[in-house]
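Consider a typical record:
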Amino acid sequence: MRKLGIDYGDARVGIAMTDALNITVQGIETIHHQGNDKIVLKRLEEFLNEYEIDTFVVGMPINMNGSKAERVELTEKFIHKLKCKFPKINIETIDERLTTVAAHKTMNFLNIDNKKKKNIVDTISAVYILETYMKKIENKKE
């Protein structure tokens, strides 16, 4: 069963997914929703119809000092919607501190055009969120 990473934002949501064996993580897409979560939920439903997914991993926007960022409440509301719409899917959260910074560093390293960065930064952040989760569960096994 695959895992799906979610970088939830006001206007865009980055999506990443593991392969069927949970070995690698790939960035899938950025969903442009402009604050309409129904668009995001519909797209997630399409992923569930196409792939065997057992877990959603949602990045939690924690401040650098460990306190909850203003966005935490919005993210928690989104997670509640996920739980209501997809009650059989396990939902995990991961501290997403510095994932956007890491995504920008990756894009700069790859010399990605500034105009394209806005459309892929959330997807790359979702990859980092999901990779962090996968490392966490791998460390628990050891």
